[in-house]
């Protein structure tokens, strides 16, 4: 358990030392395409081992998570509660494996913990748990709540004159929740230019295509009408994602919504653009095929 802020894992099981240990702030010059592939393999391996979990919406979010954790956010894996850290809010909490993959790769906890995904007593539950997992800012489960949390955090940062920023990752099906739009209005009202949300717009949810269940498009004019700065990117072009996140940092007086056009299940041919692998683990043959495609 990590709820007292201490790491209880024996030192020999800790992850490899991180770059830039003099400041503790994570930095890496690693090729990001390689990092993305590795995260996709991590996600599939941990979901396979658990024999349950959400591969589709985890795989679609890889480039956004890597852009944030490897290039954009100020964060210290050795000090998860560092007061000056940027805050990341995983609003689409079922995509916990992509966050666990990044946190493990960055050194927040030993990678061997991935093997405990979804087990009783593991700190890596199917939806994120703020009090037990280093690096997790919000407990999740109910879609629609994360943006409100992010608005509160961004408002607190402004009131205290802090320079840290807040990032939130949403999903398209999640935007059917009315609470998202309440938070969208509040963020505009309070001129939260320290808040950047990313919409993982993969067009597929649990039961099929979002347009067939509740068609929320066009997202761009909706968010603009609600007073947000809107940027659209190919969510699998990591350079576009990084550029958009940098642009958002210089926008004044309003929050930014990055609409990332993505593919559910990205990187694994038989998982792409289908609801079948929204919440299903691969079987041994499927895992083998997927890992070959991601080699
Ligand atoms: C309030 C709420 N209703 C239903 C669910 C069950 N649920 C989990 S994931 C999901 C579909 C999510 O689809 P989407 O938001 O598009 O996510 P992604 O495609 O990125 O995985 C649903 C309905 C939930 N977690 N919370």
Q: What form results from the Cα inertia axes?
A: globular
**Mean pLDDT over the full residue set:** 93
Q: Are any ligands bound, and if so which?
A: thiamine diphosphate
Tally of discrete structural domains: 1
Tell me roughly what share of residues is in helical segments: 25-40%
Major beta sheet, specifics?
5 strands, parallel
CA distance, first residue to last residue: 34 Å
Rg, Cα atoms, Å: 18 Å
CATH superfamily: Thiamin diphosphate (ThDP)-binding fold, Pyr/PP domains
Strand content of the residues, in percent? 5-15%
Order of helices and strands: HHHEHHEHEEEHHEHEH
Overall SS class? alpha/beta
Fold-level CATH name: Rossmann fold
Q: Tell me the number of helical segments per DSSP (H or I, 4 or more residues long).
A: 10
Q: Biggest sheet, strands in spatial order?
A: 1-2-3-7-6
**Low-confidence regions:** 1-17
Structure summary, number of beta strands = 7
User: What oligomeric state do these chains adopt?
Assistant: single chain
Helix and strand topology:
Layout: H1 32-50, H2 55-59, H3 62-72, E1 87-90, H4 96-106, H5 146-159, E2 166-171, H6 178-189, E3 195-201, E4 204-205, E5 208-209, H7 210-213, H8 219-225, E6 229-234, H9 238-249, E7 256-261, H10 284-293
The structure holds thiamine diphosphate.
């Amino acid at each position: 358990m990590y709820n007292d802020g201490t790491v209880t894992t024996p030192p020999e099981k800790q992850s490899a030392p991180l770059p830039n240990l003099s400041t503790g702030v994570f930095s890496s010059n690693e090729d990001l395409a390689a990092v993305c592939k590795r995260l996709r393999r991590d996600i599939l391996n941990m979901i396979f081992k658990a024999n349950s979990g959400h591969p589709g919406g985890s795989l679609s979010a890889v480039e956004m998570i890597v852009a944030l954790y490897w290039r954009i956010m100020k964060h210290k894996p050795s000090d998860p509660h560092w007061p000056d850290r940027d805050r990341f809010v995983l609003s689409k909490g079922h995509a916990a494996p992509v966050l666990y993959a990044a946190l493990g790769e960055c050194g927040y906890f030993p990678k061997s913990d991935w093997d405990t995904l979804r087990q009783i007593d593991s700190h890596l539950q199917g939806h994120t748990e703020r009090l037990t997992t280093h690096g997790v800012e919000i407990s999740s489960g109910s879609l629609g709540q994360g943006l409100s949390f992010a608005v509160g955090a961004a408002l607190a940062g402004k009131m205290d004159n802090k320079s840290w920023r807040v990032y939130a990752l949403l999903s398209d099906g999640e935007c059917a929740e009315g609470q998202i739009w309440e938070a969208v209005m509040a963020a505009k009202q309070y001129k939260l230019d320290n808040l950047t949300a990313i919409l993982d717009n993969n067009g597929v949810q649990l039961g099929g295509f979002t347009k067939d269940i509740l068609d929320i498009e066009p997202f761009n004019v909706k968010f603009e009408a609600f007073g947000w700065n809107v940027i659209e990117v190919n969510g699998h072009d990591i350079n576009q994602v990084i550029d958009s996140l940098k642009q958002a940092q210089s926008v004044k007086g309003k929050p930014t919504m990055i609409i990332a056009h993505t593919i559910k299940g990205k990187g694994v041919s038989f998982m792409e653009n289908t609801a079948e692998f929204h919440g299903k683990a691969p079987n041994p043959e499927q895992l083998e095929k997927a890992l070959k495609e991601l080699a």
